[in-house]
């Protein structure tokens, strides 16, 4: 009898949640269709302006030479204990030093951290991974294989699989979203947390609702909810949309050479190379945002490039500001790929407080 009463009392709440979820998905897919129309026009324009490139991406048969640069480190694979998947990573530096683990964003791979691998290998054991679905790492096809929980477990397995009890976690873009969550749910594995140009997902969603401009700038997130169409649009005219994203004067990678551009396009040109990375986005609306607090080890570093300045108070709550350090700068969102030509730090005027070097 008590169970029937409880079920009856909860019925209105359950129905309300189902209706809200249905309403949310209707809005998401409506926005996705609008975004698909916009990006479809952009992709078609690229095809018409560059007809020799065709409608599909050109498959790259051999990787560019910069991906095998021996000065960046040794290419290795690690079989994850929890999932059995193999992740590719590049390792360099002092094997007995502290582990500095790098997590990249989209549309990138381990090569995003080439300057940091060079810079820190004399003092740390530096490891840059290809996240699940990227590059030479295994890429399950099922969307459910890219939930935040599974991706966090991958990070845990990498740290422990390399033989370390904890790490200095350095992250950017999608890697930063994972790092925020990881530092909360696995605080004992994070000695220090460095986040570049990304806020926790809950802050991002709240900011987007309060600042409509950010909502429109994130239109691609809605496009990526659709099956197969985003892969087709991104690959048209030999991945011109991705090329524009990576080489944009303000939001792209500063001083990116053609050879370095190919380091990213090579992976995406392989069969199914775009589906894994896009599945990260296809899981965004499948769960409500998680609560966030500071569990980032001894010290948390947040490197912000202008974009999140209005939400600084939310991004860095007063309760944990004494253990954190925010460094503001201007220039590209992809600041991790800007070579520093002087002593790195807040006093480095060239790299930290101005545009590209």
TrEMBL record:
Keywords: Hydrolase, Membrane, Transmembrane, Transmembrane helix. The chain crosses the membrane at residues 22-44. InterPro entries: AB_hydrolase_1, AB_hydrolase_fold, Epox_hydrolase-like. One of its GO terms (molecular function) is epoxide hydrolase activity. Residues 98-206 form the AB hydrolase-1 domain. Belongs to the AB hydrolase superfamily. Epoxide hydrolase family. This is Epoxide hydrolase 3 isoform X2. The gene is EPHX3.
């Amino acid at each position: 009898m008590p169970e029937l009463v409880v079920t009856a009392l909860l019925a209105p709440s359950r129905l309300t949640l189902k209706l809200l979820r249905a309403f949310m998905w209707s809005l998401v897919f409506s926005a996705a269709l609008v975004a698909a129309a916009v990006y479809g026009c952009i992709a078609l324009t690229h095809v018409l302006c560059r007809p020799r490139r065709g409608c599909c991406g050109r498959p790259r048969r051999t990787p560019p030479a910069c991906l095998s640069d021996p000065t960046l480190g040794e290419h290795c694979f690690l079989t994850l204990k929890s999932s059995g998947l193999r992740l590719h990573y590049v390792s360099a530096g002092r094997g007995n030093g502290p582990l500095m683990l790098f997590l990249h964003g989209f549309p990138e791979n381990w090569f995003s951290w080439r300057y940091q691998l060079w810079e820190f290998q004399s003092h740390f054991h530096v490891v840059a991974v290809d996240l699940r679905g990227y590059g030479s790492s295994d890429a399950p096809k099922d969307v459910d294989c890219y939930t935040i929980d599974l991706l966090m477990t991958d990070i845990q397995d990498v740290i422990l699989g390399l033989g370390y009890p904890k790490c200095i976690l350095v992250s950017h873009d999608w890697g930063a979203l994972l790092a925020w969550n990881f530092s909360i749910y696995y605080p004992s594995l994070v000695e220090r947390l460095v986040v570049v140009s990304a806020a926790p997902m809950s802050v991002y969603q709240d900011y987007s609702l309060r600042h409509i401009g950010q909502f429109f700038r994130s239109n691609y997130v809605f496009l990526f909810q659709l099956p197969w169409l985003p892969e087709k649009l991104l690959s048209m005219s030999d991945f011109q949309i991705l090329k524009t994203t990576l080489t944009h004067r303000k939001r792209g990678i500063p001083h990116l050479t053609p050879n370095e551009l190919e380091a990213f396009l090579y992976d995406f040109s392989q069969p199914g190379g775009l589906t894994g990375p896009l599945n990260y986005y296809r899981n965004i609306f499948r769960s409500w945002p998680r609560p966030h607090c500071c569990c980032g080890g001894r010290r948390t570093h947040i490197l912000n490039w202008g974009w999140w300045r209005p939400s600084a108070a939310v991004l860095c709550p007063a309760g944990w500001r004494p253990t954190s350090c925010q460094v503001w700068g201007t220039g590209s969102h992809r600041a991790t790929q800007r070579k520093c030509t002087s002593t790195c730090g807040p006093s480095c005027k060239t790299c930290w407080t101005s545009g590209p070097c």
